[in-house]
Specification:
heterotrimer; A mainly alpha (222); B mainly alpha (219); C alpha/beta (299); B: 80% helix; C: alpha/beta; four-stranded antiparallel sheet; 12 strands
Chain lengths: 222, 219, 299
Amino acid sequence: MESFDSLVSYAWFILGGAAATLELTVLSCTLGLIVSLIAGLSLLSKKLLVRWAARTYIELFRGTSLFVQLFAAYFVLPLAGIPLSPIQAGVLAIGLNGGAYGAEVVRAAIQAVGNDQREATIALNLTRWQAMRWIIFPQAVPLMLPTFGNLAIETMKATAIASLISVSELTFQAQMVRTQTGGTALPFITILITYLAIASMMMALVRWLERRLSRGLVSVRT
Amino acid sequence: MSWSWAFALEILPALLDGLIVTVKVTLISSVFALVVGLSFAIAKASRVTWVRHPVLLATEGIRRTPLLVQLYFLFYVLPDFGVLLSPLTAGIIGLGLHYATYTSEVFRAGIESVPVGQWEAATATNLSPYHTWTHIILPQALPPMIPALGNYVIAMFKETPILSAITILDLMGEALAQANFNYRYLEPITLVALGFLIVSLCSAAIIKILEARLRLENG
Amino acid sequence: MTSSSSYSGLEEASSKPHLCGAAKRGSAAVPHHSNPDRPETPIIEFREVGKSYGTFTILDKLSFSVRPGEHLALIGPSGSGKTTILRLLMTLETVTAGEILIDGRSLNREERSGKIVQASEAHLRRMRAEIGMVFQHFNLFPHKTVLENVTLAPVLTSRLSKEEAKNRAFELLDKVGLTNKADEYPARLSGGQKQRVAIARALALQPKILLLDEITSALDPELVEEVLSVITDLRNETNMTMLLVTHEMSFAKDFADRVLFFEQGKIIEDGPPAKIFQEPDHERTRSFLRKVIAAGQRV
């Protein structure tokens, strides 16, 4: 049996992986958010080619499994002359995968803003861009938020598989401790609790954002 | 490195073996996820606090932590407590349990969509709780859930590659084994991606048809 | 060249119904403020306008024109095409046949490199600058305050600076009696207050033509009066051309100097309110008015 001191030092070693987990989560969420906005708006474009390109991206990334995409990014892209670090490959695969799901959320939310709002912008002679920027999009954001919150948590959970391409995040560190010490309960329970804490913090953040962004909209549906 | 058809053909039999494992795991885990998910949903609707709260806590805990870590837990930690699971059993339980927490939300929403009047009518006609569930509530709640549940089955299918991390030789496991052995990643990973794409697109189309049919039936 | 005279082919095709319309108007009383001896360019002219959705036709070869400053009430049963006329003018719908002219310029067509083509978005935006609309369901922007609802369009269409737009907005809110609500969100207002904000919002762009689409239909009966009194003031104090679609017959009578009675996409009665409401030419008009009176309205 290990001493208490070494248990603590192993726990600290594992928690060191939380930084990489958070880094992966934040970067992947950011990439995913940007891509979902671009792809989601493209789905509503008047140009067939733009719509078609967005649709292809979405079906490709939703249809081929994140796990496969991660390995493709890390092992296949270098063959095409694009060598990526483990973290870069992780962010690219997880972000683009999340973006494919987010794009549909953006499209649905924008379409959910009532036609009466669109007509009002025409009557006030706004351009299509102005209408989107000032009227439609701001009303669509509160509709996207709950689903985006769930997607963000899915993204955070997905970062665990980056351990398989040697990103030293929580799961990777736990595996290291397991292989070096043979101890199993300590490393895995430690990271389970850490993931749970990160997820709960993210949920609290989303709830707070939801409350902030829905001003004026709360009693609309009366 | 460029694409080699010869190598692609050479590894194809192994990949097909893997695909069979993948489909088998998906089907068994789906049944597990549906049955356990329904039990979770019924437990969450329970009026008994000591049934409702532990289940709520467990499902939220499972939903907020990565599947990979849960698989490691089943595969590495449980043996230390005397529970030895084969990789396949651990994979099916892990995948099934993880998705049971998602399907339980679908079941919960479906059950809540049955009007309160139906419960009251069941009470008024003196049905037991068991008969209320099997004859009144579930027959009304289940059909509208089918598309959402179907989407989770597809999601589970796409999640199966993760099982290769606990040494299961599913489609991805076989592909990685071939890739590591020959040190060629292009063909195995491309073929796996293609396989997933085809199955996902086909099953998504089937679900769309199901949805359309359901809409027709409900007028 | 955007003058209608350049579309010689179209002119010819539409000359007949146009003349018919003029002849018909000749028999009606002429509004007091226009000079019958001097021919004016109509501010709105429909030339054989058609609108259909697939095989369902709402308007078929509709022709009529409106003089600047005229106050028009469009009445008739539901589905007779009155609202469609306003929506076509606001370019919320596109014309499927014929042509609409605003101040002599085509609304739905433009000339590009010598060819007459379907109007582009840029052309529509130029034409829309003359037209404002108030909707049945207000269509206020729920995420913007009352003040922002009124200032948004003038600032974005770069007609006014932020400061000017704000001053104008307060003038307009004062006119509709809502300066004290400037910082509220629309969700906190009553229906009548919402509609008054919507009127201020439409006026902020200083349109020459104001379209009022059943602006009191969505209101509780006790709130109708506050909105109608705003419209009456507007009618008396400005020289805007106003088109009112309404089911309030008594208000149509007080408001309009010309009434069009529509049925199944056709104008079957066109004249001053005194004539339409007291001695209409057609039995259909009489039966419509009887039904309205039976439903409890005072005419």
